[in-house]
Specification:
Layout (H helix, E strand, L loop, with lengths): L24 H20 L6 H10 L2 H16 L3 H22 L2 H12 L8 H16 L6 H31 L2 E3 L10 H13 L6 E3 L16 H12 L11 H17 L5 H6 L7 H32 L8 H16 L12 H17 L2 E4 L11 E6 L5 E10 L9 E6 L10 E8 L12 H18 L19 H7 L6 H7 L11 H9 L5 H19 L10 H11 L17 H5 L8 H18 L5 H10 L9 H9 L6 H6 L4
Parallel strand pairs: 5-7
Antiparallel strand pairs: 1-2, 3-4, 4-5, 6-7
Length: 676
């Protein structure tokens, strides 16, 4: 029997990974599609439309399809192979067609319209009324009000876009792997820590390059190694390779793909009655319209780039003082930033690594903070197998010992895993089907040689706290309907809880509990932390400018009308960034278009602004925690009850306002980033 055919009988419905083989995915997918279509037919034949026989029945439909897709898409992201890539290419357009077959079913939409019209007269609870509202809005947004011809055109556009997105992702992974830099002489790695050198040797050995060292590429512009490498020629080689991902006129070139995607998205938006893809997307986000986003970004951009240029001047002064005899370039920034930080604030974040050992960070930092806030506990479950030998499972329980869910952590990079870090779920919490959550985090930490502890960089530690914030959003969900579970909120709201969780990384009580030297057990020197806090706004010009350039680039691509045709990716990219005054060569955009997977294959099209939009809420909330006693069970319970547990079951900004007691203020963000 296909292991996806029924709900798993393992604890928490954990998928039976030991039994799942590559050949199971497609049959289960097609069976799942057919099952859901049959369920829709049953809805259409169930008599006069009611909340139960239409809306709730839709909520219950497609369970087999969900099971297989949840596992498959994690497999294709975290541990792909040629077979999985081929399946994904076949599956993507079929899934698009299946989704459209439901969303564009006129008879089904008519039933939803009927229930929607009488929703306030049905004596339903608030979450149920919101469910009706969301289904109605989702169907309208998907094109349910279009005429027959327009619906057929929309189906064709969606199918093409799904194929192109899959190809973009596969090209990027292949090109990222190809661009890894092989180092023949260990002397060229001067500046790296012994553990980093060991990881580079292990990465080379994994590719059959014994006796060499490998600097693998990451998904964003730049590379962690640039902060330490003293060999300027190697730094330049790494940065130029990073900037070239997906744009090298080879089989993995993404330029023609993304131009086609931008054109098709503009066509789809026009079909739906919008001037641009950005207007279409933002109509369903908390921002509402691109003009509101541009208003916020233009408040930030001038100060950000002014700060970046000032930071660049400080770096150039150090280069000159050291008689470097070269002009600051993008491949110099990370290294000299650390040197300036050390000289100005006596902070060297590379020295933090021995104090950020993965197991301690996870158990005594991330988990410990969650226990202090929410009362939840984490127990390793070695008897439960995840989808890869490097992925581990923990059982999560409430303060009273009752079951809460499972957490899976998969922290190491590998050639079969796409770049970046993310969270998702194999099982989503909901009361309707009686399910508890099974959530997972993926990261891309270089794996050390056997027997060597995993020491995290400062940024990797921050990423772990961030991604676990998403995991908490999924674990602490307490909703009736799957549609609203956990992170099922607007794209420009979903980063808010995860960004809030980053605050605990440097919270004195938490830091003291986990930041201990992996060999001696000595705590991280308090002086370092104090100096780091004094340097809180240092390099924020770079960080903000780099991020804003990517956000602006995303909006530029997706603000194009159907009549605007772009034929040169590089010139359009440069013009969009320059138009905001963000064109400062030593600070390149965090993502160039050819490797901007967030917007071309990650669901963030016209939505990358959401990180800083959410950070407005995050900075405001951090201030609330500080003003109300910080890391306490009372505060954690309030955050859990008023926000994390609610998922998407109510208005997002309403949740925020109820939690903080006021509308969002931008000033805490501007202060955090050194912009006021």
């Amino acid at each position: 029997m296909n292991p996806f055919a029924h709900r798993s009988d393992l604890a928490y419905e954990l998928p039976p990974f030991d039994a799942i083989r590559d050949e199971h995915y497609l049959p289960a997918f097609y069976a799942g599609c057919q099952e859901q279509l049959d369920e829709v037919t049953a809805i259409l034949e169930s008599g006069a439309p009611t909340f139960e026989n239409t809306i709730v029945a839709l909520e219950k439909s497609g369970r087999l399809l969900f099971r297989v897709l949840a596992v498959f898409y994690n497999k294709s992201s975290a541990d792909t192979n040629d077979t999985i890539d081929a399946i994904e290419e076949e599956l993507a357009p079929k899934l698009s067609a299946h989704t459209d077959a439901i969303n564009l079913n006129a008879e089904l939409f008519e039933r939803i319209q009927h229930v929607h019209a009488v929703r306030n007269d049905l004596n339903l609870d608030a979450e149920s009324v919101w469910l009706i509202e969301r289904y109605y809005r989702d169907f309208v947004h998907a094109g349910a009000k279009l005429g027959i011809n327009e619906r057929e055109e929309l189906k064709a556009l969606n199918e093409k876009l799904s194929k192109l997105g899959t190809k973009f992702s596969q090209n990027l992974l292949a090109d990222t792997n190809e661009l890894a830099i092989v180092v023949d002489d260990v002397a060229d790695l001067d500046g790296l820590e012994p553990g980093q050198i060991d990881s580079a040797a292990a990465a080379a050995a994994a590719r059959g390059l014994d006796g060499k060292w490998l600097i693998t590429m990451v998904n964003y512009t730049g590379n962690p190694a640039l902060a330490s490498l003293t060999n300027r020629g190697l730094r330049e080689k790494i940065m130029k390779a990073s900037l070239s991902k997906g744009g090298r006129a080879n089989d993995n070139d993404n330029r023609s793909l993304l131009l086609e995607m931008v054109k098709l998205r503009a066509q789809r938006a026009a079909l739906m009655g919008f001037k641009s893809h950005a207007e279409y997307v933002l109509s369903e986000q908390t921002a509402g319209h691109p003009d509101r986003v541009h208003e916020m970004l233009r408040k930030i951009a001038p100060a950000a780039v002014a700060n970046a240029r000032a930071e660049g001047e400080a770096i150039q002064a150090m280069i000159d003082a050291e008689k470097g005899h070269f002009e600051l370039a993008s491949w110099d920034w990370a290294l000299y930033t650390e040197r300036v930080r050390l000289a100005k604030y006596n902070v060297d974040t590379s020295k933090f690594k021995p104090y950020f050992e993965l197991e301690r960070v996870l158990n005594d930092g991330v988990f410990w903070a969650a226990t202090k806030l929410f009362g939840i506990t984490f127990e390793p479950r070695s008897d439960l197998k995840a989808y890869h030998p490097e992925a581990r499972v923990w059982e999560v329980k409430n303060e009273d010992g009752s079951a809460l869910g499972l957490y899976i952590g998969d922290f190491y990079t590998r050639d079969s895993k796409r770049g970046g870090a993310w969270m998702s779920a194999f099982v989503e919490q909901n009361h309707l089907l009686g399910q508890l959550p099974v959530v997972f985090n993926n990261m891309n930490v270089p794996k050390p040689s056997e027997g060597t502890p995993t020491l995290l960089t400062f940024d990797e530690t921050a990423t772990l706290f961030h991604e676990f914030g998403h995991a908490l959003h999924g674990l602490l969900s307490n909703v009736t309907y799957p549609r609203f579970s956990g992170t099922s909120v607007e794209r420009d709201f979903v980063e808010f809880p995860s960004q809030v969780n980053e605050m605990w990384m440097l919270w004195p009580e938490v830091l003291a509990n986990y930041a201990k030297h992996f060999e001696t057990g000595e705590p991280l020197p308090l002086e370092w932390v104090e100096n780091l806090n004094r340097a809180e706004t240092f390099n924020q010009g770079f960080e903000t400018t780099s991020y804003l350039a990517a956000a602006v680039l995303d909006l530029a691509w997706h603000s194009l009308s159907v009549d605007e045709v772009i034929d040169n990716v590089e010139s359009f990219e440069a013009g969009a960034i320059a138009g905001y005054g963000l064109d400062y060569a030593p600070v390149p955009t965090r993502y160039r278009s050819t490797y901007f997977s967030h917007i071309f294959d990650g669901g963030y099209s016209a939505g990358y602004y959401g990180y800083i939009w959410s950070e407005v809420l995050d900075a405001d909330t951090v201030d609330w925690f500080k003003d109300n006693g910080g890391l306490t069970r009372e505060n954690g319970q309030r955050f859990r009850d008023e926000l994390l547990s609610r998922g998407g079951s109510t208005d997002s900004m309403g949740m925020f306002q109820k939690f903080t007691g006021h509308v969002a203020q931008i000033e805490p963000l501007l202060k955090r980033r050194g912009l006021i």
